[in-house]
Backbone:
């Protein structure tokens, strides 16, 4: 069960990151959806671990996935 | 911010990074490996820990009573029971301490009995000074790398001061980096791998720096604290508040005070205490138990637990009758927010607060942290070779590259060598005699590869050779263990061993992929320029 919840949390973070990177949405909605997806990931991590560990875990997972998304789907222009 | 201030910050960022780059890579890379050292890789390296087993609490209690009766009276002051969890010990260890020595020793002395976790047969005994016992415990490849990360095997305090100082430089580099790269949001997803090697390195440095900034700040701060606390902060605190008396400071703040012995005999109920702790915190691991004034009416028992819902390790306090008194941090009951922050610095640095998944995140972030100084150094060097009046000649550039590959790549290679060596040692050498091999193998492998840098002119091929050797050493772990190891991927007696062997194979194949993807250079850059 914990593994499934971690996978869902990671998928939410990945979706949030891809949304952050995309340019196809209205900016206000884009950030709203991003925060909603991050909140879902946070809720899942908190339910798997404790509150403090869940928050730290969300930040760490978001950081790792951010680096991986940037390196694999990096923009080719500044 | 004024451009002149930014310029100064840029200079600070560059020079701090360049001066400490190689050392920072060494500490960060070994730190990334050290995250998995205890207990995962320690279990992989020690056959006695590989079969999951629970030692019955009553057996532990019986052993404590039996061996307490065998040791002289003064050794009953403090009894430590170290569980075979892979966090510290690979055997069940009963340690009977006498703080004031005995007829043979005028210093802290102990008698230790070590048992096989499965059969509970007595494996080792020790009698002698306490420091010697803890210093000469059996080590393994991963623990050796973990200890290297802590003090670079330079001894204490020099090694600790150096690693603590490197934590501070990481902190300075991260903070100055955030100020000088002002287009933070814009550069979050910019990675132009089609625009040449220098641009790729520069973008990679920025991506890892911006994304990893929170982690790097936390690791830098906690690393500086861990390195400098015992050698600088503790004496400073003792100087300010206790007239320089460090023992008095520790005595005041210790979580485990000495009990007053009543000399009234009353059996200490270790079985009930261990059972109660397991019921209260079913997901936590009991690392060790400290029994004070054993079998006295005033006996006190402290259990150190890791995991469960608590982020930091916790100390459970019981009286001798088995009544639960309280749970506290390793620092005891000290009020204030600062102690709470210090308490969580340890798990935040080690990444051991929420299982394997978080540890893997810490490994990846640690590797990204290790690549930061390296990519920064490469940017610094490349910048000096460009332009109409380059300050770095092609020869010097090639020499620098060879030095970086020899020192940083040599360290990676030395770490990779240790794992197949561990399998061979498990097969051919008994117990604590392993300790004599890790140092020479690690440092000679590193030194030889660094010396080769002076002779290998083509640095790209030298880099490829480093990748190939790392790949071969890591890939060899699985076949070696399949042939020589008791538990391996073929019989799958231990899931952790099978999983770890396969992980070594995958990482080895990743190195091999890197080797195949890096194109060989027939002629070195220096030779091209000279031509």
Residues:
């Amino acid at each position: 069960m914990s593994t499934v919840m971690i996978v869902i949390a990671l998928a939410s973070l990945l979706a949030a990151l891809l949304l952050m990177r995309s340019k196809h949405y209205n900016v206000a909605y884009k950030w709203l959806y991003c925060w909603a997806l991050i909140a879902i990931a946070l809720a899942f991590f908190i339910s798997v671990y404790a509150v403090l560990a869940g928050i730290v875990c969300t930040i760490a997972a978001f950081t790792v996935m951010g680096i991986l998304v940037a390196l694999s789907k990096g923009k080719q222009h500044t | 911010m004024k451009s002149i201030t930014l310029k100064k910050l840029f200079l600070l960022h560059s020079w701090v990074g360049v001066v400490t780059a190689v050392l920072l890579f060494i500490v960060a890379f070994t730190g990334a490996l050290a995250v998995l050292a205890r207990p995962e890789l320690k279990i992989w390296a020690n056959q006695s820990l590989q079969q999951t087993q629970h030692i019955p609490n009553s057996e532990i209690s019986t052993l404590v009573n039996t061996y307490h009766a065998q040791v002289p009276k003064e050794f009953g002051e403090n009894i430590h029971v170290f569980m075979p969890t892979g966090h510290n010990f690979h055997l069940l260890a009963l340690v009977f301490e006498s703080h004031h020595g005995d007829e043979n020793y005028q210093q802290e002395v102990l008698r230790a009995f070590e048992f096989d976790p499965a059969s509970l047969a007595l494996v080792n005994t020790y009698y002698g000074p306490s420091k010697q016992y803890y210093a000469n415990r059996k080590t393994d490849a991963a623990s050796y790398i973990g200890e290297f990360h802590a003090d670079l095997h330079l001894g204490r305090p020099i090694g600790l001061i150096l690693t603590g100082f490197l934590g501070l430089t990481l902190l300075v580099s991260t903070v100055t980096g955030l100020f000088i790269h002002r287009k933070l949001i814009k550069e979050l997803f910019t990675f132009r791998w089609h625009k040449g090697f220098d641009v790729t390195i520069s973008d990679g440095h920025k991506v890892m720096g911006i994304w990893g900034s929170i982690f790097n700040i936390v690791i830098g701060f906690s690393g500086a604290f861990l390195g400098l606390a015992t050698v600088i902060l503790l004496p400073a605190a003792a100087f300010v508040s206790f007239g320089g008396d460090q023992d008095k400071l520790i005595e005041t703040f210790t979580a485990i005070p000495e009990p007053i012995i009543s000399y009234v005999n009353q059996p200490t109920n270790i079985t009930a205490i261990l059972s109660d702790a397991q019921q209260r915190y079913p997901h936590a691991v009991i690392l060790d138990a400290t029994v004070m004034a054993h079998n006295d009416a005033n006996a006190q028992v402290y259990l150190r637990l890791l995991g469960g819902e608590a982020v930091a390790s916790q100390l459970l306090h019981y009286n001798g009758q088995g009544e639960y008194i309280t749970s506290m941090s390793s620092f005891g009951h000290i009020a204030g927010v600062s102690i709470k922050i210090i308490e969580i610095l340890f798990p935040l640095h080690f990444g051991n607060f929420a299982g394997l998944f978080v540890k893997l995140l810490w490994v990846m972030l640690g590797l990204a942290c290790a690549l930061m100084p390296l990519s920064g150094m490469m940017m610094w060097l490349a910048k000096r070779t460009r332009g109409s009046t380059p300050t770095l000649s092609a020869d010097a550039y090639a020499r620098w590259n060879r030095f970086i590959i020899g020192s940083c790549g040599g360290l990676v290679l030395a770490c990779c060598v240790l794992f197949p060596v561990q399998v061979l040692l498990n097969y051919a050498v008994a117990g604590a005699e392993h300790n004599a091999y890790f140092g020479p193998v690690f440092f000679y492998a590193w030194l030889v590869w660094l010396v080769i840098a002076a002779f290998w002119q083509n640095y790209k091929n030298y880099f490829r050779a480093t990748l190939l050797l790392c790949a071969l050493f890591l890939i060899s772990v699985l076949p070696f263990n399949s042939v020589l190891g008791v538990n391996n991927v073929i019989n799958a007696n231990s899931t952790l061993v099978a999983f770890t062997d396969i992980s070594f194979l995958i990482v080895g194949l990743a190195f091999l992929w890197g080797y195949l993807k890096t194109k060989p250079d027939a002629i070195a850059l220096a030779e091209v320029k000279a031509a």
In short: The interface with chain A takes residues 183, 186-195, 203-204, 207-208, 211-212, 214-215, 309-311, 344, 348, 353-355, 357-358, 361-362, 364-365, 368 of chain B (CB under 8 Å). Chain B has a mean pLDDT of 91.
